Amino acid sequence: MENFTATFRSEHDLQQAIDALRKQGVVDLQIEPGVEPHQPMPISLLGGGLSHLSIAESPACLLQVVVESSRIRQAEDTVTRFGGAID
Predict the structure, then answer these.
(1) According to the model, what pLDDT value does residue 32 have?
(2) What does residue 78 show for φ and ψ, rounded to 5 degrees?
(3) How far apart are the C-alpha atoms of 34 and 20, rounded to whole Å?
(4) At how many degrees (to 10) do helices 11-24 and 72-81 cross?
(5) Measuring CA to CA, which residue among 86, 33, 82 is closest to residue 24?
(6) Which of 10, 33, 13 is nearest to 64 (CA)?
(7) 85-86 and 28-33: which strand pairing?
(8) Dist. CA 7–CA 63, nearest whole Å
(9) Per-residue pLDDT tens over the stretch 23-54
(10) What is the bridge-based pairing of β-strands 85-86 and 43-44?
(11) CB atoms closer than 10 angstroms to residue 66
Protein backbone atom coordinates (compact mmCIF):
# COMPACT_ATOMS: atom_id res chain seq x y z
CA MET A 1 0.00 0.00 0.00
CA GLU A 2 1.06 3.55 -0.77
CA ASN A 3 -0.47 6.87 0.20
CA PHE A 4 -0.09 10.51 -0.72
CA THR A 5 -1.78 13.80 0.05
CA ALA A 6 -2.97 16.40 -2.44
CA THR A 7 -4.32 19.93 -2.05
CA PHE A 8 -7.31 21.17 -4.03
CA ARG A 9 -8.51 24.78 -4.32
CA SER A 10 -11.81 23.93 -6.05
CA GLU A 11 -14.64 21.77 -4.72
CA HIS A 12 -15.61 20.90 -8.30
CA ASP A 13 -12.09 19.69 -9.15
CA LEU A 14 -11.92 17.73 -5.90
CA GLN A 15 -15.21 15.97 -6.61
CA GLN A 16 -14.10 15.06 -10.14
CA ALA A 17 -10.86 13.60 -8.81
CA ILE A 18 -12.70 11.61 -6.14
CA ASP A 19 -15.09 10.16 -8.72
CA ALA A 20 -12.23 9.16 -11.04
CA LEU A 21 -10.19 7.66 -8.19
CA ARG A 22 -13.15 5.58 -7.03
CA LYS A 23 -13.51 4.17 -10.54
CA GLN A 24 -9.82 3.25 -10.47
CA GLY A 25 -10.37 1.23 -7.31
CA VAL A 26 -8.36 3.14 -4.70
CA VAL A 27 -8.22 1.54 -1.26
CA ASP A 28 -9.31 4.64 0.69
CA LEU A 29 -9.93 8.37 0.28
CA GLN A 30 -10.03 10.85 3.13
CA ILE A 31 -10.60 14.59 3.10
CA GLU A 32 -10.00 17.45 5.47
CA PRO A 33 -11.47 20.81 4.41
CA GLY A 34 -9.44 23.96 5.00
CA VAL A 35 -6.54 22.61 7.06
CA GLU A 36 -2.79 22.86 7.05
CA PRO A 37 -0.82 20.01 5.40
CA HIS A 38 0.11 16.94 7.44
CA GLN A 39 -2.91 17.05 9.75
CA PRO A 40 -5.01 13.91 10.41
CA MET A 41 -7.63 13.06 7.78
CA PRO A 42 -10.71 11.95 9.73
CA ILE A 43 -13.43 11.87 7.06
CA SER A 44 -13.37 8.73 4.91
CA LEU A 45 -14.99 9.19 1.50
CA LEU A 46 -14.77 5.69 0.07
CA GLY A 47 -18.35 4.88 0.95
CA GLY A 48 -19.89 8.33 0.62
CA GLY A 49 -19.76 11.66 -1.11
CA LEU A 50 -19.25 15.31 -0.32
CA SER A 51 -22.94 16.14 0.01
CA HIS A 52 -22.72 16.57 3.78
CA LEU A 53 -19.60 18.78 3.66
CA SER A 54 -19.48 22.49 3.05
CA ILE A 55 -16.01 23.24 1.76
CA ALA A 56 -16.78 26.18 -0.51
CA GLU A 57 -15.58 28.71 2.05
CA SER A 58 -12.40 26.77 2.84
CA PRO A 59 -9.18 28.06 1.30
CA ALA A 60 -8.03 24.56 0.38
CA CYS A 61 -8.93 20.94 0.94
CA LEU A 62 -6.54 18.10 1.54
CA LEU A 63 -7.25 14.72 0.01
CA GLN A 64 -5.38 11.69 1.26
CA VAL A 65 -5.30 8.75 -1.16
CA VAL A 66 -4.44 5.17 -0.20
CA VAL A 67 -3.77 2.93 -3.17
CA GLU A 68 -2.09 -0.35 -4.10
CA SER A 69 1.61 0.18 -4.83
CA SER A 70 1.17 -0.80 -8.47
CA ARG A 71 -1.41 1.95 -9.01
CA ILE A 72 0.17 4.94 -7.31
CA ARG A 73 1.38 6.55 -10.55
CA GLN A 74 -2.11 6.29 -12.07
CA ALA A 75 -3.67 7.85 -8.95
CA GLU A 76 -1.14 10.69 -8.87
CA ASP A 77 -1.74 11.41 -12.56
CA THR A 78 -5.50 11.48 -11.95
CA VAL A 79 -5.17 13.92 -9.06
CA THR A 80 -2.98 16.32 -11.05
CA ARG A 81 -5.25 16.05 -14.09
CA PHE A 82 -8.09 17.44 -11.97
CA GLY A 83 -6.06 20.31 -10.47
CA GLY A 84 -4.69 18.74 -7.32
CA ALA A 85 -1.21 19.62 -6.09
CA ILE A 86 0.56 16.62 -4.60
CA ASP A 87 2.24 17.47 -1.31
Answers:
(1) 85
(2) -65, -45
(3) 22
(4) 150
(5) 82
(6) 33
(7) unpaired
(8) 6
(9) 999 999 999 876 544 444 444 555 555 444 44
(10) unpaired
(11) 18
- Least Cα distance to 68 among 15, 31, 21 occurs for 21
pLDDT at residue 44, as a whole number? 56
Q: How far apart are CA 87 and CA 78, in angstroms?
A: 14
Q: How many residues does the chain have?
A: 87
**Cα–Cα separations (whole angstroms), residue 55 to 16, 24, 70, 76:** 15, 24, 31, 22
Q: Give the pLDDT score at 87.
A: 86
Single-letter amino acid code for the residue at 11: E
Distance CA 4, CA 66 (A): 7
pLDDT per position as a tens digit, 53-77: 444 445 689 999 999 999 999 999 9
What is the pTM assigned to this prediction? 0.72
